[in-house]
Every structure is written in structure tokens, then in C-alpha cells.
Design goal:
Elements lengths: L9 E7 L5 H8 L4 E8 L13 E4 L4 H9 L5 E5 L3 H7 L7 E5 L3 H4 L11 H7 L3 H20 L5 H11 L2 E4 L2 H10 L6 E4 L16 E6 L9 H10 L5 E5 L6 H13 L3 E5 L5 H8 L2 E6 L7 H9 L3 E4 L4 H8 L5 E2 H10 L7 H14 L2 H15 L4
Parallel strand pairs: 1-2, 1-4, 2-3, 4-5, 5-6, 6-7, 8-9, 8-11, 9-10, 11-12, 12-13
Helix pairs in contact: 3-7, 9-14
Length: about 400
């Protein structure tokens, strides 16, 4: 895009519904060239985080919610963070003068029937009860739901979201390679790609401190983490250290119960994190492990993975995960869990050398340099003058 300079800042209206990344995402869009206003769609509790004074909480499909449609006309951009039904509803009802940026979260496309079934190992499918009967039941619920909306003369949420994807101007994401992967595997044409910047806001620990003989597995209890194959590798390799399992959120009841039972059946020293921890305490605890293993086949837990790399943890990923290849392209030292984890356990090679820890910290500094954010802001400024 050719950069066009404006005498006044571009105006951005942000729509959130998950409190975890509000501050981080707002800081990516805060610059001298921008003015920002934000709404938080309340599904559980109103937003009470760092920017609570400037982020207005509203309930979806309330009177205040519908007023956002008119208010959006005063802005240059509408940013939607995770393209949910409510956000798609608004995006589909504003004029095309307002550019829409979809900050991709992952679940919007990876949760689709085209990709979701490919995200689970055979062990995960069995543990979560994902069988033919499960799919038939889900299909019946979906089609009855579809019929209900149709009889009311309304678009089903899936239809509303598909319509919004065609309306969106820019698909904001960290990695062009993953965008190309999704474009190939999803049965829908994605909007134009715009590079979303990493910023340096992760808590840092002293990487000179020796690590514990411990392996962290995953970052949540969601089935997509595919815990069981990793635990099998660790157990079969005869690992004698501690296995740390953050399981404080996510997962369906069947998977959570069967995973807990499987963990109990292993002759491993395990430490299950099943309660809330303040952010800095969580980072300090988890980055004390020598290694961390993430067995998702899709982009997931990226902030956790970056925290591990920044803080000197040896990271193993599944080579089917686009994040594995993105990090390698950016120069990080990351390892293939299927070919290297068992060998490294056997050779007691789970901890990175001091030089390799410093290398990954330098790669993070390069990836999150202020210039990346400025490139993003400049692309937005140029986008205001681009034809829709």
C-alpha cells in the first residue's frame, strides 16, 4: 500500500468480548496517528482490566449494542477481535466507508467443520468422546438451530459470520504463511492480509537461572492440546523429573475426566495447575521448567509459547502446527516433539544452552521491535484512502 499522510489521526472503534487480550490489542493500535474508542461485549462479567475507564461494557443485542452501528459511522475503522456472531452482526450493518479489520483469533476458522476434526489425535478423539454418535448429535442440533433462525426470517450465526467475512477489508494476523494455509484449507475466500505486530509486553525472568528438571505440557485443558500422546512419549522415555500440567480452563467434561484419570494411571511425578494464578506468578512458575511441549495441530497458545522462548525454555511443537514453521522462519530455535522429545529425554538434553537461550531472546526482540508496530499503523493510514 502507498502511504497517505492525514492531517488528523485515523479513528478506530474496537469491539472486544474476551478480557485477556484487551490491553495488549489496544496498545498495538495506540499511536500518535490514531484515536481509539472501545466496547466490550459482556457475556459473563464486564471488563475491569487496565483500560476499564475507557472501554465501555455493553450487553449483546441490548439498546446500547444497537447504538454501536450508528456510532461506527464516525470512525475510519471498526476492529473486531474474534469474529463472533454479535460482531459480525454490527460489521454487516455499517456503511462500506468504514473499513473493517478482523483480528483473527483462531477459533473462527479452526472451529469450522472443514478443519476442526483434523485438530485431534486419535487418543484425544477417544478421550473426548468424539465419535460418530457425537457428530450425529451435533449435526442434528445444528440443523434444527438453522431451521429455527430460517423460520424467523433471520440469518443463522454461521451465515452472519460468513457474510461478514466477505464484508471485512483486512485480515490481521501475525503470519502470512498461516494465512496462506487457511486460504488453501478453508472453503471461503479470506480478506486481504495485513501484518499484525508482536509487541514486547511479556514478563521477563532471569534466563541465567538454571531450570528445573521439569516439562510443561500444554497451557489448558482443551482437547486441541492433545495431551495424551505427549504424556505417552514422556512416560515411555522414562522421564524422572516433574511434569507440569496447566489445566485451569477449557475442555469438555468427558475429556477433562478421562485426561485426569489417564494422568493418575501414569508413573510420573505430576503437578497439575488447576487454579487461577496472577500473570507474573504464572510466568515465573511455568518458565522455571527446562522444556515446554505444545501438541496442538493449529495455532494456539501463541502468547504462552513466546513467553517460554523469551524466558529460556526449550520449546517442542508439533510440526503440523503453522506456528512451528513461523517461528523457524523468524530464526527461533524450536524443536519437533515427535522426532526430538524422546531422544532429548534419553540424552538428558532438555535444557537449552545459555547461548541458545540468549539467541531466542534476541529473536523475540527483533520480532517485537517498535518498527513492526509502526509498519502496521502506516498500513492503516494508507488503508483509509484505499478503495473498498
Amino acid at each position: 500500500m502507498k502511504l497517505q499522510y492525514h492531517l488528523k489521526p485515523i479513528r478506530i472503534l474496537h469491539l472486544f468480548h474476551s478480557s485477556a487480550f484487551v490491553a495488549l490489542d489496544l496498545e498495538r493500535a495506540t499511536a500518535s496517528e490514531t484515536e481509539n474508542a472501545s466496547y466490550f461485549l459482556v457475556y459473563d462479567k464486564p471488563y475491569t482490566g487496565k483500560y476499564a475507564e475507557s472501554v465501555k461494557s455493553v450487553y449483546p443485542f441490548s439498546t446500547e449494542f444497537f447504538s454501536i452501528i450508528n456510532e461506527a459511522e464516525n470512525f475510519d475503522y471498526l476492529f473486531v477481535y474474534n469474529l463472533t456472531y454479535a460482531k459480525a452482526f454490527i460489521a454487516n450493518r455499517i456503511s462500506k466507508r468504514v473499513k473493517v479489520v478482523w483480528r483473527f483469533y483462531g477459533v473462527e476458522l479452526y472451529g469450522s467443520p472443514f478443519l476442526k476434526w483434523q485438530l485431534f489425535s486419535d487418543e484425544t478423539k477417544m478421550a473426548a468422546g468424539f465419535n460418530l454418535q457425537y457428530h450425529l448429535r451435533k449435526s442434528r442440533i445444528f440443523y434444527f438451530d438453522y431451521l429455527k433462525y430460517s423460520l424467523k426470517g433471520k440469518l443463522h450465526p454461521h451465515q452472519e459470520i460468513k457474510k461478514a467475512i466477505k464484508r471485512v477489508n483486512f485480515f490481521a494476523w501475525f503470519d502470512r504463511g498461516e494465512y496462506d494455509f487457511l486460504q488453501t484449507h478453508c472453503n471461503i475466500k479470506l480478506p486481504e492480509f495485513i501484518a499484525y505486530p508482536h509487541i514486547d509486553n511479556i514478563h521477563k525472568t532471569d534466563i541465567a537461572t538454571p531450570k528445573h528438571n521439569a516439562i510443561m505440557v500444554g497451557n489448558s485443558c482443551v482437547p486441541e492440546a492433545n495431551h495424551i500422546p505427549v504424556l505417552k512419549i514422556i512416560s515411555n522415555a522414562g522421564f524422572k523429573g516433574k511434569v507440569v500440567l496447566p489445566l485451569s480452563y477449557g475442555g469438555n467434561k468427558i475429556y477433562s475426566r478421562n485426561l485426569t484419570q489417564y494422568i493418575s494411571s501414569l508413573h510420573l511425578q505430576t503437578h497439575v495447575l488447576d487454579g487461577f494464578l496472577p500473570y507474573e506468578e504464572y510466568i515465573s512458575l511455568t518458565t522455571g521448567s527446562a522444556a515446554a511441549v505444545f501438541n496442538s495441530f493449529r495455532q494456539m497458545a501463541q502468547q504462552n509459547i513466546l513467553a517460554m522462548l523469551l524466558n529460556g525454555v526449550k520449546v517442542y511443537l508439533n510440526n503440523r502446527n503453522p506456528t512451528f514453521h513461523m517461528l523457524q522462519r523468524k530464526g527461533f530455535l524450536v524443536f519437533d516433539l515427535e522426532t526430538q522429545l524422546a531422544e532429548d529425554i534419553g540424552q538428558k538434553n532438555l535444557e537449552l544452552s545459555d547461548a541458545d537461550k540468549q539467541h531466542n531472546r534476541k529473536m523475540f526482540a527483533a520480532m517485537s521491535a517498535p518498527e513492526r508496530k509502526q509498519d502496521f499503523i502506516h498500513a492503516l493510514v494508507a488503508g483509509v484512502g484505499a478503495s473498498g
